[in-house]
Amino acid sequence: MDSIKEKWNDILETVRKDLDISEVRYKNWLEPFFVYDYKDNILTLAVDNEGRNDSFLNYIRKNYLLSIKVAVTEVTGKECSDIELILVDKNEKVEPPKHQTFSRNSNDRKYTFETFVVGSNNRLAYSACLAVAEAPGEIYNPLFLYGGVGLGKTHLMRSIENYILENYPEKKVLYITSESFTNELIEAIRNGNNTAMTKFRDKYRNIDVLLIDDIQFIIGKESTQEEFFHTFNALHQDKKQIILSSDKPPKDFETLEDRLKSRFEMGLMADIGAPDYETRVAILRKKEELDHYSFDDDVINYIATNVKSNIRELEGALNKLIAYSKLEKTPITLDLAERELQNLIFPNRPIEITPEFIIGIVAEHFHISVSEISSKKRSNEVAYPRQIAMYLCREMTSAPLKSIGALLGKKDHTTIIYGIDKIGEKIKSDEKTREVIEILKKKITPN
Ligand SMILES: Nc1ncnc2c1ncn2[C@@H]1O[C@H](COP(=O)(O)OP(=O)(O)OP(=O)(O)O)[C@@H](O)[C@H]1O
């Protein structure tokens, strides 16, 4: 349940994008829900009963349930076979159900060196992590991993943790995000007594391996930086292993104190880049193997070709298809992938092609503003793109001429027809116009 709870906002955001829900509807229908329980693949969502009743819940069941189920799996990888919706009294404090167990941390078996696919983008980082896991404190201290979002830093850190837990059970290893580190420190400071601070220091200075994820978040937080500096020195002096991760290398942090910067840089810095096509396919195949699923080559090829820069999204795409196919009892085909992954692959494209969307693309293509294209200006630099927009709106949408005209500077019916015909003629006689139309159509429907 922890990971569903933690990622609830991402799940809702995925549903919002998937169904193209307006801000107002989203705030009214989805945002008020929170995660109440998750057990035996059944998720219970709760909402306070102020002004809501069973009809409210029924509306959600009818319109959003399938999409929420799919998004849960897409974002967290957890199966969600059903969702229960409950109303809770807004004046009562909602207690989580008793069966819930909060693990020490949410590290699960998924993050190991065996499940990590090695490619040219991460080979150095992988080898360094493995070396550190085998001989903590002896080489590369600290080990500083850096790279963009969703490229495997946490996976490698947790693999080190798991490896040490399994092979050196006597060693004390601690994985923590820099956010939790900061929160614990704030808590200790707030308690205002020496015991709390001593406890905090004992915890962090008496371990053999300290892994801090997303260290960039301590930058700018003075007391956290200060405390971390001393923790670092104490551990390093005792030859205890320190592993840090961040979204960029220390030299790129302008406001990071020099004394910390130099410490971060004194061991080994290993970067993780975006995976190439072959590595993306290998990651998808690995996931397929772990999930005991089998995908056709064309589906794998489609995902690997289109989802390029973030492995979390690559996995999310597979999770989504698996969830969808299970819930709807339908096979995973290329058609399904093309349909269901549209929003992930083309996040900025509206589901429906609207005249507004076309006008925006045309204006951008001709380097003029939307207000210019919709103005009364008659110069050729504006009139030609405007006529192109008229033509494309007519051809690619079912919008009535009247509304196309309204969007393009309150033009009447005859002006619109004239513009459409003019471009129609030009397409026959002028190669340049033909080309422009072709390019724009591709921009409007990239697949
Ligand atoms: N090389 C890889 N082989 C297999 N799975 C991978 C690989 N790299 C990343 N993943 C998977 O991609 C997902 C995202 O990776 P991870 O959470 O480690 O990224 P991150 O770099 O820590 O991202 P963030 O910057 O958001 O913290 C995880 O589920 C992870 O298991």
TrEMBL record:
One Pfam family it belongs to: Bac_DnaA
GO BP annotations, alphabetical order: DNA replication initiation; regulation of DNA replication
An MF annotation (GO) of this entry: DNA replication origin binding
Region (Domain I, interacts with DnaA modulators): 1-96
Region annotation (Domain IV, binds dsDNA) ranges: 326-447
Positions in coiled-coil regions: none
Annotated ATP binding sites: G150, G152, K153, T154
Domain notes: Domain I is involved in oligomerization and binding regulators, domain II is flexibile and of varying length in different bacteria, domain III forms the AAA+ region, while domain IV binds dsDNA.
Stated name of the protein: Chromosomal replication initiator protein DnaA
Biological source species: Acetitomaculum ruminis DSM 5522
Taxonomic lineage: Bacteria, Bacillati, Bacillota, Clostridia, Lachnospirales
